Amino acid sequence: MRRCPLSSWRRDISRFTITDVHPLAADGTFGPLTSVAVEDGVIVDRPGGAEVDGRGGYLLPGLIDTHVHVDHPDQLVAALRWGVTTVLDMGTPRWDGLRALRDADDDARADLRGVSSPACAPRGTAVRKMNHPASTAVRGPGDAARWIAERLDQDPDYVKIVLEEKLPFQPKPLAPDTVAALVAHAHRAGKKVVVHAASSRAYAIALDAGADVITHAPVRDTLSADLARRVTASGTAVSPTLVMMRTILRTLKLPFTPKSLNFGQTLASTGALHRAGATIVLGTDANADDTSPARVAHGSSAHEELALLVHAGLSPSEALSAATSRAAAVFGLDDRGVIAPGKRADLLLVARDPARDITATRDVVGVWKRGVAAPVPRASPTTT
Ligand SMILES: [Zn+2]
C-alpha cells in the first residue's frame, strides 16, 4: 500500500507547482526532471503558488477512456480515482441522466461525453435486449435522416452505430447502404461517428461508410494486413477494447465453444493494425450493466487495457499516447491530452516509469482534474 503524499492537500488551492517530476511529452517519452505549474485549472509556464513535491515521479496527462457505459455517478468517481479524467460513454438508454451529469461538469467526477442511444438494426441487440427505445432502430438508408434528427435533439457529443454480425437465426444486421447514409448525415451535422465492429466483414463496411472510429477488435477472425492498411489509409482510428474482449471470452456461456472465437485473434488484429500504422486509442467498454455480455470495472480497467495494448505489440510509449494525446486528437478534445501551457490541468502522477514498465501506471500517487486534487486508490488492481 502506498501512502498518498497529497492526502493533506486542500482541494481549493488554485495556484500550485508540482516539482521534481518527469512530464510525458507528446511522443510518449518522459522528459528530464522539471516542474509543472497550474493556475485556475490550466497548465501555465511560470512556476508559482503552493508547492507539491513530485518526488521524482512521472507525470502524465489524465487518461482518456474512449469507450465506457456509465449508469451511476460513482463510476465517474472511480474513474477519476484511477487517473481517468475523461470518459466517453458509448451508449446508454438513460441519456437524460448522463446528459445532466455531463452538463454539471463537476470536478469530483471524471469528465463525461456521450452518444445517447446507438443506431442499430430493427430487432438489433440494443432494442431487443439493452432497453434502448424502438426508435433507435434504423429501417434503411431512407430512415437515416429521421434517426440523426432525433439524436441531435438529444444533444449527444458523437454518434454511435452498432454493426452486428450476420449469424444464422439472428436478426439481420444494418445493411452497408444504411450505415453509409447514417455516417453521411452525421458528418453533415458535424458529428464524429463511432462504429461497433467485431469482425473483418464489419470493419470493411465501417471503412466503406467513412467511420471516424471503429470500436472493438475482431474476435471472430484476424484482420488481414491488407484490411489493416485500409484502416490506416482511411484515417479511421480504432479502440480495440481488449480488456472487454478478453472478459467476454472468459465469461462466455455458450451451448458450444466455437474454435473461431479466441482472444489470440483479437491481439493479432490489434498487432496488425499497429504494424500497419493505424491510430489506436484506449477504450475499455467499462460497464456494470446486467444486459452487457461482460462487466468491466471503471477506472482500474484502463490500466489493464494499457498493459494489453503493450501485449498486442504497442510500445509502452505508444500505449500511453493511445490513452492521452491520440485519444484527445481523435475525439477533438483539443483542451487536454498533453502536458503543455494552456491545456487543462488533468494530471496523473505515478511513482515509477511507465515507459519502462507499463504496469507502473497503477502506482497512482496523485490525480488532478482541472487542477483539483482527487482521492487516489489505496491499492493497485491485481489482475493482468
Ligand atoms: Zn460498449
Keywords summarizing the entry:
single chain, 384 residues, Urease, subunit C, domain 1, TIM Barrel, 14 strands, globular, disordered N terminus, disordered C terminus
The count of domains is 2
> Can you summarize the main beta sheet?
7 strands, mixed
Could you say which structural class the secondary elements and strand pairing correspond to? alpha/beta
CATH fold call of the largest domain: TIM Barrel
What do the pLDDT scores average to? 92
Q: Helix count, per DSSP? A: 12
What's the β-strand tally?
14
Name the helicity range.
25-40%
What features would you describe in this structure?
There is one protein chain. This protein is α/β, with parallel strands linked by helices and 384 residues long. It has two domains: 15-61 and 337-374, Urease, subunit C, domain 1 (Roll); 64-330, TIM Barrel. 30% of the residues lie in helices and 19% in strands. It is built from twelve helices and 14 strands. The chain has helices spanning 73-81, 95-104, 125-128, 144-153, 176-188, 200-209, 225-234, 242-251, 263-275, 300-311, 316-322, 325-330, and strands at 15-23, 34-39, 42-44, 50-61, 63-68, 84-89, 111-113, 159-162, 193-196, 213-215, 237-239, 347-350, 364-369, 372-374. It has a seven-stranded mixed β-sheet, with no helix packed on it. α6 runs parallel beside α7. The protein is globular. The two termini are 18 Å apart. The model is unreliable at 1-5 and 380-384 (pLDDT under 50). Zinc ion is lined by residues 67, 69, 90-91, 285.
